[in-house]
Design brief:
CATH architecture of the largest domain: 3-Layer(aba) Sandwich
CATH class of the largest domain: Alpha Beta
Oligomer: single chain
Strand content: 15-25%
Number of helices: 8
Radius of gyration: 29 Å
Low-confidence stretches: none
Strand order of the largest sheet: 2-1-6-11-9-10
Helix content: 25-40%
Structural class: alpha/beta
Number of domains: 2
Mean pLDDT: 90
Number of strands: 11
Largest sheet: 6 strands, mixed
Length: about 270
Amino acid sequence: MNSLKIYDTNGKEIGKIEMPEQFNQQIKYTLIKKCVLALRANARQKYGADPLAGQKCVANMSHRRRKFNTAYGSGQSRIPRMRFSRKGTQFHRRGAFISSTIGGRRAHPPKAEKNWTQKINKKENRTAIRSALSASLNKTIVEKRGHKLGSLYPFILDDSFKDIKKTKQVKESLLKLDLNDELKRVETRKIRAGHGKVRGRRYVTKSGPLIVVDNDCDLKKSARNILGIEIVKVNQINAKLLAPGSQPGRLTLFTKSAIETMQKNKLFM
């Protein structure tokens, strides 16, 4: 792929641009997946149980002779027990403190000090990004991923898109670029199955178009309110954004200045 057409906000072709060599990388699916899994692992929040969980009760070893804690000859298993009541030399106890008892500690609880981070080589990371960039402009791979493409894709956005200040205007411009079916695909979201719905992630939203710009602009605020659309600066793109779920081929729209910045600064090379 040598050059792509440039379209303005009205859906009219205004020129062409030569694509940099970052988009000529051979697609390596295993390397993309490796980088995406590493990014997801590095974003995990550490969690773990209280070190004293299940051990906050008074329990004595039941095989001791003294302190009325004798168990020899009474048919009791020799596990730590907590005392409920006492009548003379008769005690009512329940097992406690150890993992085989009700309310006791867990045998192997999650540890907060566990390190979830994964390291990845710089060259591998850059190669994965270039592979995902190449896949994002391959119409066959993008359609296979589930995106609803129009007749114009792949194409480049004119810099006039960066000056759009209204969400309504962004939608109108995307409709003029024959992305009506794609916007309908991502506007529906479903409720997550399982306990995740009560843990701050109630809804599952589909991944829609990724818009790449060269710097902070009005488009970052006007387009972020559209379901499924993400806006990112060109020097901050990664394999996770270009290949959500480690599957390459996301519908990606680059502005003209973003392509020029990538070529000038030799990003990801």
